[in-house]
Amino acid sequence: MPVIDRLHLLGQMNALPTPRHTYRERVQFEEHMDAQRHGLDAAQSTLLNQAVQTIQSLTGVSSPSSALGEVSARFESGKSGAAAIGYDPVGGTSYGAYQIASRPGTMDRFLQYLDQVEPSWAARLRAAGPANTGSTSGGMPAEWKAIAAEAPQRFFQVQRQFIEQTHFEPARKAILERTGIDVAKGPQAVAEALWSTAVQHGPAGATRIFFTALDAMNAAGKPQALRHPEFAQRLLQKVYALRGSDFGSSPAAVQSAVQSRLQQEGQWVLAMLQGAPTT
Prior knowledge:
The chain is mostly helical.
């Protein structure tokens, strides 16, 4: 389909984003396009996905490689990305870019989300067997990898949107309500840190960690504080220190691995804050 026709298609849906856009506008664009997918057959859905990708490339609207959540995905799943499968006794078999865990029930919630946005994938995964296989192999892990191979961009996108809706946004809103500070309106490095914290510690844990850090800085009621680089840097340092102290009851090997990951990730987001290149 010619580019101009894809532009016309999205224009007819009133979905064309502006070249200059905020994080919230990117989110609204993604949510709008998800709503348009309902009732489409496979060919129409493919056409719409191609149109969205064209708009993203022309306007700079978030793509799977540049959307908020990139830092968390890098440290949760590495190069395997949307196809990643992990396992540990606490979380059970875990899936995808953000390692959606099976034992706590997060995978069940993800399947319910898929029922709304990609029902055929939800059906395939349920038919493949239990989510927690006790390892990184089994029916559902194999089916997960198959879907990731068939539609890597779209599969990453739905994983990212699920985490945004169930982890990042609840934490962001709770922090805003308690402190008056909207992390999404600050530096991207701070938003990335909140996303990562919500993935690893859950939205309630992320809210607690950020509130503790902000409270120690007497930041409540100061919504403009994140505009100051020195404040953002101190906040990130406090957040990563608090995250590291959250695993005191874990085995020594787990504590060591977590500390190593948090040290590297903390350096990464600080470099992002300061505008240094991150690779």
